[in-house]
Specification:
With about 400 residues, this protein is α/β, with parallel strands linked by helices. The chain has 14 helices and seven strands. Strands 3-2-1-4-5 form a five-stranded mixed beta sheet, sandwiched between helices. Strands 6-7 form a two-stranded antiparallel ribbon.
C-alpha cells in the first residue's frame, strides 16, 4: 500500500513538470512518425535520393581532378594530410559515415593503396563495407523475376467475368478467354487475379436470388403494401401487384384497414388462371396469413417469401413503391380516400401506358394501340409532324407524341 502511494506521488510530480510533459509528447510524436508506413517510405526515398546526389558530386570531383596536373594533385594531397593529422593527433571522433561516403571509399580503394592512409575507420570495417556491397549487388542480380503481371485491362476483364458469372470457376474463365477471345491465361493465373471472396475453384453451387428472378421474370408476380397519408393525417394502405417481366402494374387498391380476407380477395381479382404466372413474391408481414397463402396456392401459384429484414429480395416491387413516392405522392397532398384513388388511378395509367422504363430497353410496359415506335431521326424533328404534349396529374408529368401537322 505504501509502495503504491509513493509510486503515485512520483508519477504526479513527474507529470507536473512542464519539461517532462514536453519530452513525453515529443517522444510519442517521434514514435508515431517512426512507425508510420507512409512516413517511413518517404524517408527511405529521400535518403536514397541524397545518396545518389552525393555519389554524383563525388564523380564530378573525380573527373575534374583527372584534368589537373600531377604536381597540383600532390600538393593538394599533402595539404589535406596535414589537416587530417591535426584531427588524428587530437583524437577527434568523426561522424558516422553515410551510405554515399561508404560507397565512395569502397570505390576509391580499388585505385589506391588505402591501408596506409585509412584513418576514419578500421581496415576490417572498410572490407566489411566492400563485402556488403557485393552482397547487395548479387542480391539485385539474382532477384526472382517471375512472369510479368497481366495488363490492367485484362485484370479488370477477369474481375468483371467473375462478378457477372457467379457459377464460373477459374478453369471456365480461362477457357472462355482462350476459345472466345484468343487470350491464353492459365487457370492458376486467373485464380490469382480473382477478387477476394469469389466463387470456389469449381464455381458457386447455387445462383444468386437476382439471377433467379431475372430468369423467371415473366412468371413472377411481386406484391407489397405502402402507406399514403392525407391532409387530415389519416393513413391509407395501398396494395400493389407488379408483373416483374413486363414491369406492368396488374392491380392496386386502397383501404384504411387491411385484413387477410381483403388481401386474399385482391389476389382473386389479379389471378384469373389464363396468365403464365407461377410464383408470387411477398414479405413476411403478418397480413399474409396462412389463409392468404392457402388461397394463392389454390390458384396454382407458389409463394416465395423474402428473408427476414431483406427488402432487396423484393427489389422490383420496392423500386416501384419508391417511384410512386418520388413521382406522385411526394408532390400531392391527398385530402381523403377518394382523392388518393383519383391520384393513383391517373399515375398508374401513366406508368403502364406512357412512362418509359430503362430496364425494358427503354420501353413502355403496356403501350397503347396508337403508340408506335417512331423512326429515329438524328437531332431533328421529322418533317410534317409536330410534338403534342399531354399533361398528367395537372402538369406534374407530360406524355409526348408526334402528330401530323396537316
Amino acid at each position: 500500500m505504501l509502495g503504491g502511494q509513493i509510486l503515485g506521488n512520483f508519477i504526479a510530480v513527474r507529470f507536473s513538470d512542464e519539461r517532462f510533459r514536453y519530452f513525453l509528447r515529443r517522444s510519442l510524436l517521434d514514435a508515431y512518425i517512426t512507425y508510420d508506413p507512409a512516413t517511413m517510405a518517404e524517408s527511405r526515398s529521400r535518403s536514397a535520393l541524397r545518396t545518389v546526389l552525393r555519389i554524383a558530386c563525388d564523380l564530378v570531383r573525380l573527373v575534374s581532378a583527372a584534368g589537373r596536373s600531377r604536381a597540383q594533385l600532390s600538393a593538394e594531397n599533402l595539404f589535406l594530410r596535414k589537416q587530417l593529422a591535426l584531427y588524428v593527433e587530437r583524437q577527434v571522433k568523426p561522424r558516422r559515415a553515410d551510405d554515399a561516403t561508404r560507397m565512395a571509399l569502397v570505390a576509391l580503394s580499388w585505385l589506391i593503396e588505402w591501408r596506409r592512409i585509412l584513418t576514419v575507420v578500421k581496415p576490417d570495417t572498410l572490407i566489411r563495407w566492400h563485402r556488403k556491397g557485393f552482397q547487395l549487388f548479387w542480391r539485385w542480380k539474382s532477384r526472382p523475376r517471375g512472369r510479368p503481371r497481366l495488363p490492367a485491362d485484362l485484370q479488370q476483364l477477369i474481375a468483371d467475368m467473375v462478378a457477372a458469372n457467379r457459377t464460373w470457376g477459374e478453369e471456365r474463365i480461362a477457357s472462355e478467354l482462350l476459345l472466345k477471345l484468343g487470350i491464353r491465361v492459365s487457370p492458376r493465373t486467373v485464380r490469382r487475379y480473382m477478387p477476394r471472396g469469389a466463387a470456389p475453384r469449381g464455381g458457386a453451387r447455387s445462383q444468386t436470388w437476382s439471377t433467379f428472378v431475372r430468369n423467371h421474370a415473366s412468371a413472377v408476380l411481386a406484391c407489397d403494401f405502402f402507406v399514403a397519408v392525407t391532409a387530415t393525417f389519416r393513413v391509407f394502405y395501398v396494395f400493389v401487384v407488379l408483373d416483374v417481366g413486363t414491369r406492368r402494374i396488374l392491380h392496386w387498391n386502397v383501404t384504411d384497414h387491411p385484413t387477410a380476407d381483403w388481401t386474399a380477395q385482391q389476389f382473386r381479382m389479379v389471378v384469373s388462371g389464363e396468365q403464365p404466372h407461377r410464383w408470387v413474391i411477398h414479405d413476411r408481414d403478418s397480413i399474409y396469413a396462412e389463409g392468404v397463402d392457402a388461397t394463392v396456392a389454390a390458384m396454382g401459384l407458389t409463394i416465395l417469401k423474402t428473408p427476414v429484414r431483406a427488402p432487396q429480395a423484393n427489389a422490383y416491387c420496392e423500386r416501384l413503391i419508391g417511384t410512386i413516392r418520388r413521382e406522385c405522392l411526394d408532390w400531392v397532398i391527398p385530402l381523403n380516400e377518394w382523392h388518393v384513388r383519383q391520384v393513383l388511378a391517373a399515375w398508374v395509367a401513366h406508368y403502364n401506358h406512357g412512362r418509359p422504363h430503362a430496364s425494358l430497353g427503354p420501353g413502355i410496359p403496356d403501350p397503347q394501340s396508337e403508340v408506335t415506335r417512331q423512326r429515329i431521326h438524328d437531332h431533328r424533328l421529322p418533317a410534317g409532324f409536330r410534338v403534342v404534349a399531354k399533361p398528367v396529374l395537372g402538369g406534374l408529368h407530360h406524355e409526348y407524341r408526334l402528330e401530323s401537322a396537316a
